[in-house]
């Protein structure tokens, strides 16, 4: 069963990536209507299947002949450059992924334990706040606090922008982990609340099993399957926030350069529009979608280990 789901996910990825490439390779030629003085009046676009097929052929021909996806103005192959920048971004995404899972689950357990106590202000209430307030607000507040500490001479010598300092990497990992952590805390709390009402929990309590063992050995273990279903969502949050954080902190990683290539041209020239570097965009798109695929595969493997019937065994 798990194997079939993995194959299905790979097929879905291939289909999704193919559709993205078809959209990227849409013909962009258009007719420009000018006024008597040569001023721009209107742009007329008409889709053509033959032009689309020609665009696809022009993209695939050098790729299949071994020439690759092209080079940038520094004569760097687009694919190699995309992989190099993706590795730089992975220094943020991978730690943020595990931090979000570990602290998100820990926060969810704390929220569940303090749900009926005065400490719920530090539990559920902070989780709701973290989900309600945009993480950009938290990022700005943290930066303002660090700037204030720097002015006061308490914390000095920090380099929080760019990709050349360890502290910039650490802070970006923290920024990236904020919302996914609160999201997983909420998911964990919901999973534990569902398990708390199960029949086996009531039976275990009647037998006098300690609450600590009941929570961590039984409820959390069974709830992990529901939690790991959201692995894909966590990665999507990380990647979407990555664009904002890399641009905000000038961390020149994959998201930063992907945005630069997409917005490379906003001018309309005679006979064509939006002169995009399709080779570069295709390279970055490939790596980003592969990352999403890997997250889905991790989710399926985790479910297979946590739920025996997911891999064809007997529960």
Automatic annotation (TrEMBL):
Principal place of residence: membrane
Segments forming domain ABC transmembrane type-1: 86-299
Transmembrane feature ranges: 90-110, 122-149, 169-192, 227-248, 280-306
Protein origin, superkingdom: Bacteria
Keyword line: Cell membrane, Membrane, Transmembrane, Transmembrane helix, Transport
Gene Ontology biological-process annotations: transmembrane transport
Membrane topology of the entry: Multi-pass membrane protein
Subcellular location per the Swiss-Prot or TrEMBL entry: Cell membrane
Assigned GO CC terms: plasma membrane
Family to which this protein belongs: Belongs to the binding-protein-dependent transport system permease family.
Protein name: ABC transporter permease subunit
Organism in which the protein naturally occurs: Jeotgalibacillus salarius
């Amino acid at each position: 069963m798990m194997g079939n789901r993995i194959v299905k996910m790979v097929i879905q990825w291939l289909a999704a990536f193919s559709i993205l490439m078809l959209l990227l390779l849409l013909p962009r030629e258009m007719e420009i209507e000018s006024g008597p003085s040569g001023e721009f009046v209107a742009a007329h676009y008409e889709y053509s299947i033959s032009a689309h097929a020609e665009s696809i052929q022009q993209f695939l021909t050098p790729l299949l002949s071994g020439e690759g996806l092209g080079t940038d103005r520094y004569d760097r192959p687009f694919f190699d450059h995309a992989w190099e920048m993706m590795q730089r971004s992975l220094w943020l995404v991978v730690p943020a992924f595990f931090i979000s899972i570990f602290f998100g689950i820990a926060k969810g357990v704390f929220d569940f334990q303090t749900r009926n106590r005065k400490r719920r202000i530090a539990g559920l209430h902070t989780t709701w706040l973290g989900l309600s307030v945009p993480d950009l607000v938290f990022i700005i507040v943290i930066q303002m606090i660090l700037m204030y500490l720097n002015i006061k001479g308490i914390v000095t010598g920090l380099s929080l922008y760019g990709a050349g300092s360890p502290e910039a990497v650490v802070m970006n990992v923290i920024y990236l982990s904020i919302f996914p952590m609160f999201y997983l805390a909420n998911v964990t709390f919901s999973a534990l609340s569902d398990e708390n009402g199960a029949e086996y929990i009531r039976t275990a309590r009647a037998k006098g099993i300690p609450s600590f063992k009941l929570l961590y050995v039984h409820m959390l273990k069974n709830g992990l399957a529901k939690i790991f279903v959201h692995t894909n969502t966590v990665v999507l949050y990380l990647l979407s926030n990555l664009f904002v954080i890399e641009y905000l902190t000038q961390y020149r990683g994959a998201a930063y350069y992907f945005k630069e290539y997409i917005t490379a041209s906003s001018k309309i020239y005679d006979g064509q529009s939006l002169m995009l570097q399709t080779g570069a965009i295709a390279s970055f798109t490939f790596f980003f979608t592969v990352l999403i695929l890997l997250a889905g595969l991790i989710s399926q493997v985790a479910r297979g280990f946590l739920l025996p019937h997911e891999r064809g065994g007997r529960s």
